[in-house]
Amino acid sequence: MTQQSPHKSEDMIYKKRLFYDNGIRFVEVKAKLINEYKPPAPNLKSYVHETFSYSAGLVNRGTSHYTATLTLLFYSKKEYADWLSFIGSEHKYYDEKGAIYLGIVTGKPDIQTAEMETKYIIKVQMSLIRKQSNDSRCKSQFIDLKGHWASSYIEEMEQRGMVTIPADEGEVSPYFRPDESCTRAEGITFLMRSYRYVDRILRGY
Q: A Pfam family this protein belongs to (predicted)?
């Protein structure tokens, strides 16, 4: 059963939930996880590295690789179709104990229907990387964002590679200067990085 608390972050409160990356943020899969709880099993085979590298770019995000089988119950064809269009994207999985994993769906979904095809039972295999509490995705290299209203948006763009740490005469400058106007060159650079990022999402990379 989902457990939530208004005093904790989302990385601490979700239980047995699955999210997918739609290119902007993680969105919850509108399905109920109905299989019995089994902790993801460690898997150290080298092909997992190749799968993560080509499909979701998750290599070196964690210390161990795992496999898991999830059974999802969709209550409508639309909910299933909405998730199916992003099945190749990066996923975030919270297990029964609240442990957090990042990963991808591997193989083809096993589809069953129930109640005159109004419900869809989908069984999928997932390859996962355990997300550590000090995961780099949650950290920013900029030192002037603390308390700024746009800090979370800037950090998200940084983690997606759309904003980078600038270098001034060879020296790395850890300042974003969020209240200054961007130059024409900076604006064009950001638009081109956004275009390439969306293009990779649409192509399934």
A: SLH
pTM of the model: 0.55
Distance CA(16)–CA(133), nearest Å, equals 18
pLDDT tens for the 205 residues of the chain, in order:
344 444 445 544 567 889 998 887 888 899 998 887 777 887 765 444 444 544 444 544 444 578 889 999 999 888 998 999 898 888 989 888 778 888 888 878 888 877 777 788 999 998 888 775 444 444 567 888 888 898 888 887 877 777 877 766 656 678 888 898 988 988 898 888 888 877 766 665 4
CATH T-level fold of 10-130: Elongation Factor Tu (Ef-tu); domain 3 (2.40.30)
